[in-house]
Amino acid sequence: MNDQHDHGALGDAEYAEFMELAAEEGFDLEDVEGAIEEAGHGPLPVLAVVGRPNVGKSTLVNRIIGRREAVVEDKPGVTRDRVTYEAEWAGRRFKVVDTGGWEQDVLGIDAAVAAQAEYAIETADAVVFVVDAKVGATDSDEAVVKLLRRAGKPVVLCANKVDGLSGESDAASLWSLGLGLPHPVSSLHGRGTGDMLDAVLDALPEAPAQTFGNAPLGGPRRIALIGRPNVGKSSLLNKVAKEDRVVVNELAGTTRDPVDELIQLGGVTWKFVDTAGIRKKVHLQQGADYYASLRTAAAVEKAEVAVILIDSTETISVQDQRIITMAVEAGRAIVIAYNKWDELDEERRYYLEREIETEMQQVSWAPRVNVSALTGRHMEKLVPAIETALAGWETRVPTGRLNAFLGEVVAAHPHPIRGGKQPRILFGTQAGSKPPRFVLFASGFLEHGYRRFIERRLREEFGFEGTPIHISVRVREKRGAQYKKKK
Fold first, then answer.
1. What is the pLDDT of residue 211?
2. Which is deepest, 99, 281, 333, 388, by most CB within 10 Å?
3. Residue 393 is labelled as binding a ligand
4. Does the annotation place 260 within a ligand binding site?
5. pLDDT digits (tens, 9 = 90+) for 8-39
6. Would you state the pLDDT for residue 129?
7. In this predicted structure, what is the pLDDT of residue 421?
8. Residue 434 assigned ligand-binding role
9. Would you say 229 is a known binding-site residue?
10. pLDDT tens-place string over residues 382-399
11. What is the pLDDT of residue 167?
12. For the residues 223-250, what does the mean pLDDT come to?
């Protein structure tokens, strides 16, 4: 690791000083180096596994990740939600997205396949397209091929269910798809998966340095407007644009596709994305709602800030909280906009404040604006809130200052004693930003309650308003174990 890029957010001098400290505390330096690199790079590259139902996608995913986690059953549609796993091959780490689980009777199987593939392709860096070599290419496979060509993403063609030499000719027939070499694989028995994964590594980019999602750096900042149907996302976009850019209707669900709009606000150009309302869990949806939710999730992945709209005239719902969780897990800066504020009476305001105290604890750090998209009330507060959230999202704490702070916190509030031992935070570093990512090195396991306490104190000391914080902990091995490892 010679250049600064590989040190996460640490400069060369800071990195050298940090590694010296790690050596003094008896940490394995390779482990420390790996922890910083892991936390400091941007998101791991994403590999989407797509294909028709029952071609063996989940079995292949289990083979790639090396354990049986994806649910497998010999009937189509077992995978319902898209699930992401971490995998490693030849020393390189990446994420694998198992797609599938569409309802076959939603709008016909071709439409369902296309919707899943569209989402997966849009958010992935490379795609493994799984085809059943015994069945051969079907019309549904051809529909996905068209999407893949349009997207221009690297594709590795997996001819699955080739259990022996007799199946090689079946695999060869898939050259007709025009996606290059079909890799004959038996995901059930592992045959050919190594060669296929070598091709996957050639297709995947290296893990990027500080970036967000899959969106390119530079250009206007991307703001996704998200929330339940009919909370006023399109009205808000029209109000900030000062013209009717998107259709607004009292009927919930007017917006189906994310709508990108370049808007000048406060002397700055922003890219606002109006998204479809998310009604409920994706796998419980039907028809156009199902596809709209997929596209909304993709829009959040590519945004920098999620402005989450909540209808202040209605009780804060489980679905509101689910949408917030989606944005937090995506690592986006967050602003909470309570819309329709002009319609509240005193009683509703009282109960809303109580709901916010109890139901919105998970994002108590997010800037809040009380707005009316209809009348324009307090719309001027939206951009300052977005700028605050972005500033928190990009904040970087120097390692020296962070360790002085950690020393004070640990001295004043040590970890509780468990089993006769008292684990201590020895030192730490901020390995990345967008969102802020910290690695703490400790003498023993830190309980979740103590980690939450550390996060709370980090926010009190350094701000981080409007951004999730990721904290990972590395525990020092016992000296004896370390000695055996070196031998």
1. 39
2. 333
3. no
4. no
5. 556 666 677 777 777 777 676 667 766 666 66
6. 92
7. 87
8. no
9. yes
10. 889 999 999 999 999 998
11. 80
12. 70
Burial of 320 (0-12, 13-18, 19+ CB in 10 A): buried
Instruction: Find out whether 56 is annotated in a ligand binding site.
Output: yes
Looking up tokens 């995506």, which residue turns up? 330
For residues 303 and 443, membership in a common domain is answered with no
Are 281 and 363 contained in the same domain?
yes
- Do both 329 and 457 map to the same domain? no
How far apart are the C-alpha atoms of 287 and 387, rounded to whole Å? Answer: 37
- Number of domain units in the chain: 3
Residues 180-226 have pLDDT tens digits of 999 999 988 889 999 999 999 999 987 654 433 334 445 788 898 88
Reported confidence tier of residue 333, pLDDT bands at 50, 70, 90: very high
213: amino acid identity, one letter: G
Torsion angle in degrees (nearest 10) through CA of 362, 329, 7, 482: 80
Is 141 flagged in the annotation as binding? Answer: no
Q: Which domain holds residue 347?
A: 221-393
Residues in the chain: 487
275 is in an annotated binding site: yes
Average pLDDT for 452-471: 94
First to last CA, the chain: 24
Residue that is last in its domain, among 364, 393, 422: 393
